[in-house]
Amino acid sequence: MLGDIVHSDPLYVGKPQNVGYKYLPTGALGKDTYTTFLTSNATRTSMIYVGANDGMLHAFDALTGEEKFAYVPNALLGKLKDLTSPTYKSLTSTAIL
């Protein structure tokens, strides 16, 4: 189940971009760890993350659109059953035209 997405801007996360740390002098703090990070994540799957009114953070494969996972904060676990209720209502902070 995917809740409605209102007031949540999707966030695209692709492979990490080199922001110049690898050009630091040899032995400079962070150079080796950042280079390792770039190499280790060069082929990671590009994802799109978005929050929904079901209280979940949804993660979608950016190429296929397939939902890979949804994160539910512990504080909302006990309320998930309410989403299936025919009388469940969701409120927004602004008018929808």
The average pLDDT value, as a whole number, equals 83
Low-pLDDT residue spans: none
**Major β-sheet, in short?**
4 strands, antiparallel
Computed CA radius of gyration, to the nearest angstrom: 19 Å
User: How many separate domains make up the residues?
Assistant: 1
Cα(first) to Cα(last) distance is: 25 Å
The portion of residues forming beta strands comes to 15-25%
Helix content: 10-25%
Describe this structure in words.
With 97 residues, the chain is of the alpha+beta class. It has one domain (11-84). The chain is built from one helix and four strands, in the order E-H-E-E-E. The chain has one helix spanning 31-40, and strands at 11-13, 47-51, 57-61, 67-71. It has a four-stranded antiparallel sheet, with no helix packed on it. A hairpin with a 5-residue loop joins strand 2 (47-51) and strand 3 (57-61). The protein is elongated.
